[in-house]
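Try this one yourself first.
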């Protein structure tokens, strides 16, 4: 294995060609106030697999591919199952 950073997140957009937007959320306890804090980060990742909205993916750090893309989709951890009755036209 190599020592590149790897993170898991959820695909929130796949409208670009060979690019997906992945939202990475983390939960931690504040060091002083001891309150549980949620923080999220959205990154653009190169996608050769063809991910869909809602998929949980593992992304890996790469060399810069464009101005915004520094990550690539390594694998799909969990596929999102969508039914036919979910849609905009309701």
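Now uncover the answer:
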């Amino acid at each position: 294995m190599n020592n590149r950073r790897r993170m898991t997140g959820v695909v929130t957009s796949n409208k670009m060609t060979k690019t997906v937007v992945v939202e990475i959320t983390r939960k931690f306890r504040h060091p002083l106030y001891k309150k549980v804090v949620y923080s999220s980060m959205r990154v653009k990742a190169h996608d050769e697999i063809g991910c869909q909205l809602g998929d949980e993916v593992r992304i890996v750090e790469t060399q810069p591919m464009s101005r915004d893309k520094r990550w690539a989709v390594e694998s799909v951890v969990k596929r999102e199952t969508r039914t036919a009755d979910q849609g905009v036209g309701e």
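Discussion: The domain at 6-78 is CATH 2.40.50.140 (OB fold (Dihydrolipoamide Acetyltransferase, E2P)). The mean pLDDT is 91.
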